[in-house]
Fold this protein.
Amino acid sequence: VVVNAGLKPQSYTTCDEFKNDPGEPEVEPGQYVSVAIEALDDGYGETRLSREKAKRRAAGQALREHAPDLVVLTGDFCDHLPQLLPALRAVESIAPRLGSYAVFGNHEYYRGARSALRTYAKTEIEVINQSHRTLGVGSARLCLVGVDDPVSLRRPDYFAHATDRALSAAPSDAFHLGLSHRPQGFEQLADQGVRLTLSGHTH
């Protein structure tokens, strides 16, 4: 797609960035769209632009304006590992007072869980796969309980096993908030006292 961004007579971005999930074009020729600079010179004398980068920045700005107390990521956050750190930096910039936490989905394992963990380790976003973290909220306590994707272990009793590990030594007097990549983990978490679970992988 050729874009006039006022940088050169023409700059380029990929067609896929102008399609919706079913693969249909979602913009019309001549329509104004927000883009961000991906590369001033891509080595071939062309300026490369990114609509997705602009969307991430806009989403981060909107979240910062809402000033959330807590940010959680429930897996499959970024499919392209070279883009993971910039995406995490955008989340990090929100700076919620209680912190940011994540569990992995199947795509983190498909793309390389070790590489993803090394990338997360460069940020303030903590990965809590099969573990928990207890946070102070005024005079109360909030316990985050993390359950990642079954692809990490491939065992039939995965959710029971992962929930047991995540809740090991967790405080009983805290409000338990579950992070489970797959909603199939809801029942097991609820059976063990987790009052609310947030999930990805709802497709």
